[in-house]
Design a protein that fits this description.
This protein has one helix spanning about 100-115, and strands spanning about 5-10, 10-15, 20-25, 25-35, 40-45, 55-60, 65-80, 90-95. With about 120 residues, it is mainly beta.
Length: about 120
Amino acid sequence: MALKLHERRRYIRIEVPLKVKITGEGWTEEVATKNISPIGMRFETGRRFRQMDVLGLEVYLPADDISIDLKGKVIWQEKTSLEDNALYDVGIEIIEIKEEHKNALLKYLCDLLYDSSYHSG
């Protein structure tokens, strides 16, 4: 699998579609990440959030066949187009994660970066 990497600010974002279950007060939604880093993620949804909303997130790591639980804070949200029914791009900052889940996420991201099928350029 060839990975596309975008470096912004302090961390590289890895473009990989991971399954994410989002939980709020009285609702649950499944989405896929557009990109992920050690400190956050981006995904598309039809749901409108407010900046600073805190969400429960369960991220599935397919290589290890495990799900990790974390809490994330909405940092930004914008429509993907001008159409009325357009989805929203949402940027999440990870604000709470258990140490073993953080280690699993970091290992997964490092494995993607060092995978022998990754080629830059």
